[in-house]
Write a structure and sequence with these properties.
PDDEXK-like_dom_sf; 7 helices; 165 residues; Lambda Exonuclease, Chain A; binds iron/sulfur cluster; nuclease; alpha+beta
Length: 165
């Protein structure tokens, strides 16, 4: 059994093969432009808001704030692309927090596009994320998945050279 984290959930929704590579500790390209840009936006955004980079157990939250008695956890993304994966990642964090006794609300933030999406962990979403975690466990135990994405969609992936070169 592997210890599932938010990055793995994000990758699984983006591309099964990416999740498998990550789970098997195959190191992605470190100077990938997309990753560097993401790090830069994360560091430069919301400097005077909440607490950034909060680690609890095996989860790492981009930002945590207390507002009107509510705990709000945010994921900061560089663009609206891959928001489906980011949504699942945030729901996974909300579920892990709930299991620790913390009720929180989620926010997906895309500072470059001034976008804010509120994410709530409903019962249906909770069940879906639990199932998704089971699927990840199964995937990791199996062989490496075939390339599943079109080459142009892989261009920003840090495993691009691994898959395509
Ligand atoms: S390069 Fe494409 S196929 Fe390979 S891991 Fe990344 S998204 Fe998946």
């Amino acid at each position: 059994m592997i210890d599932i984290n938010g990055s793995l959930v994000l990758s699984y929704t983006n591309c099964r093969r990416e999740a498998w590579l990550m789970a098997h500790r195959i190191i992605p390209e470190q100077d990938n432009t997309s990753m560097s840009l993401g790090r830069l936006i994360h560091e430069a955004s919301y400097e005077n808001r909440g607490e950034k980079d909060v680690s609890i157990d095996n989860i790492k939250l981009d930002m945590v704030e207390e507002k009107k008695g509510k705990t709000i956890v945010s994921e900061i993304k560089k663009s609206k692309y891959s928001l489906e994966g980011a949504r699942d990642q945030l729901l996974f964090y909300l579920l892990r927090l709930k299991e620790m006794g913390v009720q929180a609300e989620g926010q997906l933030l895309v500072p470059k596009e001034k976008k804010k999406i509120t994410i709530t962990l409903t019962e249906e979403e909770e069940e879906r994320i639990k199932k998704l975690c089971e699927e990840i466990q199964k995937l990791v135990e199996g062989p490496i998945p075939e390339i599943e994405r079109a080459q142009n969609k892989c261009k920003n992936c840090a495993y691009y050279t691994y898959c395509w070169v």
